[in-house]
Amino acid sequence: MRSRVRSVFLLLGAIGLVAATTACGSDSRTDATGTPSGDITVFAAASLTAAFTDLADAFMAANPDTTVTLNFAASSELVTQIGEGAPADLFASADLSNMAKLTDAGNNATAPVVFAHNSAAIIVQPGNPKGITGVADLADPDLVYVQCAPEVPCGKYATQIFENAGITVTPKSLEENVKAVVTKVTLGEADAGIVYLTDVNAAGDAAAGVEIPADINVVAEYPVAVTREATNPEGAQTFIDFVLGAQGQAILASYGFTSP
Questions:
Q1: Total Cβ atoms within 10 A of residue 210
Q2: What distance in Å separates the CA atoms of residue 53 and residue 243, rounded to the nearest whole number?
Q3: Higher pLDDT residue, 215 or 17?
Q4: Radius of gyration over alpha carbons of the chain, in Å?
Q5: Per residue in 39-75, pLDDT tens?
Q6: Are strands 90-92 and 219-226 parallel, antiparallel or unpaired?
Q7: Nearest in space to 92 (alpha carbons), one of 77, 68, 112
Q8: How far apart are CA 189 and CA 77, in angstroms?
């Protein structure tokens, strides 16, 4: 079923997405029993990539008349693109502040609801060759530490963690989303980065993780809402209900997310 999920990235540009949606004529349809149908375009934070891909597969298996298009990027990029007219039926953010940008602009059709929690962790190369034991080690100027850009949720969370720990850390580079941080570490281009615990889990043997103590860590809240310009609002709401339901929550938990 995975081949039915059409993952598109913002590098394709909002214009291409608009053209594609116009061409396929997506609309909101349900049959006499209320079963959703048609195209559903999901804009979701990059840290949701693996979990939402499985969620979309499971949703389409349960609703075979639907096709889910997944668009993953930093939450800050997604909300900007929605504000500029990119077609999205629903928006799932990795933080509350970027969702607030959506609602403050009146670009939501439903009230946001938090569907998952996450926490931060240090990602390092397999075997932790630099012997990193905690966030204080990331202040070592000889260490190649990378982090999400400050406007990206994972970048905001990293800054908050350092403030909580009372240390100053200067990243060697600022990345566009959390997946870019993971990629730099797994490719050996960086020694460490701060990502989500779910990203460390998803990396498998390609990386290792170092725990961040709860007293300085953050709890990332993930809200979701149907967008004002949704072409399939009924389908979008059904997808949200699926995410909030038992099967959706079980899929999220399998990737390390916790229930709100």
A1: 19
A2: 12
A3: 215
A4: 19
A5: 999 999 999 999 999 999 999 999 999 999 999 999 9
A6: antiparallel
A7: 112
A8: 24
- Report how far apart the first and last C-alpha atoms of the chain are (Å, whole number): 29
**Among 176, 227, 259, 256, residue whose Cα is nearest residue 9:** 176
| CA-wise closest residue to 204 among 176, 178, 182 | 182
- Vertex 21 angle, CA 15 and 23, to 5°: 100
**HEC per residue, the chain:** CHHHCEEEEHHHCHHHHHHHHHHHCCCCEECCCCCEEEEEEEEEEHHHHHHHHHHHHHHHHHCCCEEEEEEEECHHHHHHHHHCCCCCCEEECCCHHHHHHHHHCCCECCCCEEEEEEEEEEEECCCCCCCCCCHHHHHCCCCCEEEECCCCHHHHHHHHHHHHHCCCCCCCEEECCHHHHHHHHHCCCCCEEEEEHHHHHHHHHHCEEECCCCCCCCEEEEEEEEECCCCCHHHHHHHHHHHHCHHHHHHHHHCCCECC
Tell me the sheet residues that pair with 92.
Answer: 44, 224
Q: Which pLDDT score, from 0 to 100, does residue 159 have?
A: 97
d(CA 227, CA 196): 26
150 C-beta neighbours (distance < 10 Å), count: 12
Q: Which two three-digit tokens encode residue 82?
A: 């929605």
Residue 145 structure tokens? 């530490």
Kindly report the pTM of this predicted structure: 0.84
Enter the tokens of residue 67: 């096709």
83-98 tens-digit pLDDT: 999 999 999 999 999 9
